[in-house]
User: Fold this.
Amino acid sequence: MKHLILVLIIGSLGCVSYEKDDREKAIQHVVLCWLKEPGNQVHRNQIIEVSKTFRNIPGVLEVRVGEVIESDRAIVDDSFDVAILVVVPDGKCLQDYLDHPLHQTAKKKVLLPLVEKVVVYDFQE
Assistant:
């Protein structure tokens, strides 16, 4: 019986557990946001705060979010307002994150009303 309970617990964790090798192969989900009102600090802060809640989504290994840094270098695109980085161990966890109610609610209630343009880059180490 104890073994069955342990198997059920481990199985229910899904993509929450990961090994060091999994983190090394993790998917980096980069989201750049351009606001409908560029530079609006209140709107930037709302996106930053809601993005921090993504840390509570099972399978998410790391979340980083911040504002653009202005640059004089021609190679730097500093036209966006907020960048979000979400790290997940694999493609299944990325899809689970995208489908999760916390992400969907943030998207509908904060991101879509405030954001004019979004560009996403996904890459794996």
User: Anything to note?
Assistant: Confidence is low (pLDDT under 50) at residues 1-20. DSSP finds five helices and four strands in the chain.
